[in-house]
Amino acid sequence: MALISKSFFQKRGLDKLKNDLKGKANELLSRTMDQHVTLAVTGLSRSGKTAFITSLVNQLINEGNGTKLSFFDPVHNGNFIAAKRVPQKHFHVPRFDYDAAMSALTAEPAIWPEPTHGISELRLAIRYQPKNSILKYATDMATLTLDITDYPGEWLLDLPMLKQTYQEWSQQTHDLMNCAPRAQHSESFLDKLATIDPFASASEELLAELAQEYTALLHTFRYELGLSVIQPGRFILPGELAGAPILEFFPFPAIENLDANDYQNAPDDSLVGMLRARYLEYKEQVVRKFYQQHFLRFDRQIVLADCLTPLNKGKESFADLELAMSMILQSYSYGKSGLFSRLFSPKIDKLLFCATKADHVTPEQHAPMVALLNQLIHQNKQHLHYEAVQIKTLAIASVKSTNSGVSKYKGADVPVIQGQRLVQAKGKESTEVFGQKITLFPGAVPSQLPKDDYWQSNSFDFIAFAPLPGLNKQQCLPHVRMDQVLQFLLADKMI
Ligand SMILES: Nc1nc2c(ncn2[C@@H]2O[C@H](COP(=O)(O)OP(=O)(O)OP(=O)(O)O)[C@@H](O)[C@H]2O)c(=O)[nH]1
Ligand SMILES: [Mg+2]
After folding, report:
1. pLDDT at 2
2. Pick from 261, 380, 280: which is nearest to 329 by CA?
3. Cα-Cα end-to-end distance for the chain
4. Ligand 1: which residue has its CA nearest to atom 3?
5. Which residues are near ligand 1 (CB < 6 Å)?
6. What is the dihedral angle through the alpha carbons of 165, 171, 172, 176, rounded to the nearest 10 degrees?
7. Ligand 1 atom 27 nearest Cα
8. Which residues make beta-bridge pairs with 419?
């Protein structure tokens, strides 16, 4: 009896040990195999970043409730289990305010989330059932940790400054300020600079005052003229640097007795010397630091572009978007000759460009929207070498605010959209005034970069809409192609 009992217990002990070991091995395997993706979302101000992240999170945590994610394989194939928000990794970075955004979109009447002015983060834990990867032998439930970072595209506009001296930057910015449509607004500021002796010792107050004027000009360029090239980007979106002296400089154009040597060697307490010092400090402490502390961590990047607003504003605004896109793309130019690869070595492996607010136009205009965005990107292709980076372009609506249909006009079928018009108070960023329900064909999107004659013969009327009424926090937000976004960005990590 004692003998039987001993071998019985020995066997049980061995089994338990085997099971424990197997469990430990599985746990270790699944822990080491647990996936992690850092997703960065950028775009110029008002391009739709907040709406995009809110919708992406909402689609994942409410999966299956309301809308379909037919093109997102993990959902389509049934291996998606659930997603939930978990505490973010970096406690020093502000939290992306998902709850405030959802409260705005589900309010009565529904409103758009407030503009945001800096970087923020949010972390999701996504549970799924591995079906094809090695993980399936270890566990029937794996976790994909998704870190999402929202940051202003304006910050990327600063990258080219890293290779410019203060003199070169001043000259380039000055040239821009002397061209339409900036010239008219810049005149009095430039006239004022012309009366100042760059070699005289300058006070902090004078610098602060002129920097404020220059910043006010940048606000006019962005929010009144609808221009995209705003440098330095932090001046209109300072984030945590608001009010810091590092943001108190401006371009000082070359004048007769100011040559390259002066720009470099003017005494530190002269106006030009102080401007030079702050410019250099800005490049090191702000621009370079952003790339080192944040940009280099990103695995995947989404660049959002609102092409419709510049089309509405006209030729100069659209040309400015073209220039801004080419500046932004320098951050993703990884070829050996690229500025970026000489300064840093990023690890982004997927790059998604989205033309946002596709619900502002009728569905058959989505293909021209994508074609236009492709042209904006690929005209710079000769300068870009995306080594090992997968690129995709899509036309999306993160939060669809119109319904599309067909209307009869003079006996013919015309595609239309219907929604509640949103009137934005002029010059203000966020004041929203609701208009009436409207049904319209807003116009055709050019599928090519518009040429000069195009602007004479075409008028666009892409209007802003309020979010649809009756949205619900527990349901998926209506969208256009967010499932394709998820498919491109996440599906390969959830197999
Ligand atoms: N119709 C429609 N409008 C949208 C959509 N996404 C954004 N918008 C509009 O674009 C505006 C700006 O969107 P946000 O998501 O706040 O843009 P942002 O890039 O975060 O802007 P900043 O925080 O100022 O940098 C919103 O207030 C809406 O009017 C969309 O999917 N459909
Ligand atoms: Mg925002």
Report:
1. 46
2. 380
3. 52
4. 357
5. 43, 45-51, 112-113, 115-116, 152, 356-357, 359-360, 397-399, 401, 464-465
6. 150
7. 112
8. 438
Predicted confidence (pLDDT) per residue in 217-270, tens digit: 999 999 999 999 999 999 999 888 888 889 999 999 887 778 888 888 889 999
Comparing 94-98, 189-193, 236-240, 364-368, the range with the smallest average pLDDT is 236-240
Which residues, in sequence order, are CB contacts of 220 under 8 Å at separation 6+? 185
Of ligand 1's atoms, which has the minimum distance to the CA of residue 396?
31
In contact, 414 and 407? CB cutoff 8 Å: yes
What pTM was estimated for this model as a whole?
0.89
Per-residue pLDDT tens over the stretch 269-279: 999 999 999 99
Q: What is the mean pLDDT of the chain?
A: 87
Q: How far is the CA of 335 from the centre of ligand 1 (A)?
A: 33
The alpha carbon torsion through 333, 334, 339, 344 (nearest 10 deg) reads: 130
Task: Answer whether 386's CB lies under 8 Å from 334's CB.
Answer: yes
Which CATH architecture fits 33-151+298-401+470-493?
Answer: 3-Layer(aba) Sandwich (3.40)
Q: From the CA of 237, give the closest atom in ligand 1.
A: 25
Phi, psi of 418 (to 5 degrees): -135, 135
Phi, psi dihedral angles at 258 (to 5 degrees): -115, 105
Q: How many CB atoms sit inside 10 A of residue 212's CB? A: 14
Choice between 475 and 340, residue whose per-residue pLDDT is larger: 475
pLDDT at 389: 81
Domains in the chain: boundaries? 33-151+298-401+470-493, 164-293
Buried b (16+ CB within 10 A) or exposed e, 399-414: bbbbebeeeeeeeeee
> pLDDT value at position 208?
93
Residue 219 Cα to ligand 1 middle (Å): 18
Distance in Å, CA 51 to ligand 2 centroid: 7
Which residues contact residue 327 at a Cβ distance below 8 angstroms, ignoring those fewer than 6 apart? 156, 157, 159, 160, 229
For a mutational test of ligand 1's pocket, the pick from 46, 361, 399, i.e. the residue with the most ligand atoms closer than 8 A to its C-beta, is: 46
Q: For residue 423, which ligand has an atom nearest its CA? A: 1
Query: Which of 65-79, 276-290, 337-351, 385-399 has the largest mean confidence?
Result: 276-290
Q: What is the pLDDT of residues 70-91, one digit of tens each?
A: 899 999 988 899 999 999 888 8
- Dist. CA 295–CA 289, nearest whole Å: 9
Please identify which residue in the block is written with the tokens 């997703």.
39
Q: Which ligand is closest in space to the CA of residue 44? A: 1
* Ligand in closest contact with the CA of 399: 1
Looking at all shown ligands, the one closest to residue 430's CA atom is 1
